[in-house]
Predict the structure.
Amino acid sequence: MVSGIRKSRTYRRMKVRTPGGELKIHYELRLPKKPKCANCGHQLHAVPRRRPTEMQNMPKTKKRPERPYGGVLCSKCMRQKIIDSLE
């Protein structure tokens, strides 16, 4: 019988075929939501959807794009902010 914590839908149920040929159910935590732009709320690309513990083990260059405001603002808002600061 499954432990109580896994009965809720917090955990994702994945069917895995074992080498013996039978199907087993593995329980995994669900992925977090996609990161959003702080200015317009648009979805940020190049930022992975990972749990905080997985993000800690990732190299810094894989966590966000290498540009000003990378991982915080989308490219459109970043461009606009830089243009505004020059004026």
Summary: The chain has two domains: 1-30, 32-87. The chain is about 25% helix and 15% strand.
